[in-house]
Design goal:
184 residues, four-stranded antiparallel sheet, Jelly Rolls, globular, mainly beta, 11 strands, five-stranded antiparallel sheet
Length: 184
């Protein structure tokens, strides 16, 4: 039996790797920031307030803000209440309490599950804008009645550029300013 062997040149291997990298990174081209913080022993004490710092250069476009939650099947609630605090480039701060639903009325978890681990990304503000270029700092505090809160494995934040430019009306309407409002 004749065996045909195909020789691959190092250039072919590099081309395959390069194409793979382009494909992988192009799938997430709208993401300008994403960070997830692991919760120690999967028990979130309200004194632990993960911080997310992002530099915003482009204030002409709209952004979508998300909260990422990884939790275990044993998480005892269908939602999580968070206090989201924002520090703006000029040093001013604002805080808002938001609810992120993690399951429907029947208890079916949202997101993607693998075994007893669930990952869910919740849109908390759509088409938000940043007024000034600079460094924005967000912090997340769990605000549930149970403290510490069991079953939360990690919490994170993601910001995506929508590719939509702000209108004059949005520039005059501070209600849509990038400060998370939660999902309803």
């Amino acid at each position: 039996m004749n065996e045909i062997r195909r020789m691959q040149s190092p250039g072919t291997s590099l081309l395959i790797i390069f194409c793979g990298l382009i494909l992988f990174t192009s799938c997430d081209k709208n993401r300008i920031y994403e960070k997830n913080v692991t919760i120690d022993k999967y028990i979130w004490d309200s004194k632990v307030k993960p911080v997310f710092t992002v530099d915003i250069a482009d204030t002409s476009v709209l952004y979508n803000l998300y909260i990422n939650v990884r939790h275990a099947e044993i998480y005892p609630f269908q939602n999580i209440w968070l206090i989201v605090s924002t520090k703006f480039p000029d040093g001013t701060t604002a805080s808002r309490r938001i609810e992120v639903m993690l399951a429907d009325e029947e208890g079916k978890w949202f997101g993607e599950g693998l075994g007893d681990i669930w990952d869910y990304r919740s849109l908390i503000q759509e088409n938000a804008f940043f007024d000034k270029p600079g460094t924005y700092t967000f912090s997340l505090e769990q605000n549930m009645r149970v403290d510490p809160l069991p079953g939360v494995m990690s919490i994170g934040m993601r910001i995506e550029n929508t590719g939509i430019y702000r209108t004059n009306e949005q520039e005059n309407n501070s209600r849509e300013k990038a400060h998370p409002q939660g999902n309803r």
